[in-house]
Amino acid sequence: MMVPADKKEYHAAYRGKISNVIFRNISIVDGLFPYSVFYGFDKNKNVSNITIENLKVHGKKITSLKDAKIYMEHTNNITSR
After folding, report:
1. How many whole angstroms separate alpha carbon 18 and alpha carbon 58?
2. Contact 9, 3 (CB under 8 A)
3. Which of 24, 27, 28, 46 is most deeply packed, by most CB within 10 A?
4. Domain for residue 26, yes or no?
5. How far is CA 6 from CA 36, 41, 44, 76, 77, in A?
6. Among residues 35, 50, 46, 36, which one has the least CA distance to residue 74?
7. What are the residues facing 70 on neighbouring strands?
8. What pLDDT is stored for residue 1 in this prediction?
9. Within a domain: residue 2?
10. For residues 7 and 3, what is the distance between their CA atoms, to the nearest angstrom?
């Protein structure tokens, strides 16, 4: 749920950060390949230092964020390899 612009400052006091996470050995073996979303609250309460390792979709290794179908906002240092 989106926070209304006039309430954003109030809600920011209760938000944290997500950082230093590794997603490893994920395989999509059947069905559709959905988009993934990395969305920080704002530039200070962001999502950072995320690594996606060994993502496979229907047997094909995915190494780029574009091919991984990642949507990002208020993020820093998101990589796929």
Report:
1. 29
2. no
3. 46
4. no
5. 28, 14, 18, 25, 29
6. 46
7. 36
8. 62
9. no
10. 6
Query: CA 46 from chain center: how many Å?
Result: 10
Return the amino acid letter for 53: E
Cα–Cα nearest to 29, from 7, 57, 3: 57
Over residues 39-50, the pLDDT tens digits come to 999 899 999 999
Residue 72's Cβ-side half-sphere holds a number of Cα atoms within 13 Å equal to 18
What is the span of the domain harbouring residue 41?
Answer: 37-81
Which residues neighbour 18 within 8 Å (Cβ) at sequence distance 6 or greater? 40, 46, 47, 48, 50
Q: Convert the pLDDT of each residue in 11-57 to its tens digit.
A: 888 889 999 999 999 999 999 999 999 999 989 999 999 999 999 99
Beta bridge mates, 22? 51
In a domain, 77, yes or no: yes
In a domain, 50, yes or no: yes
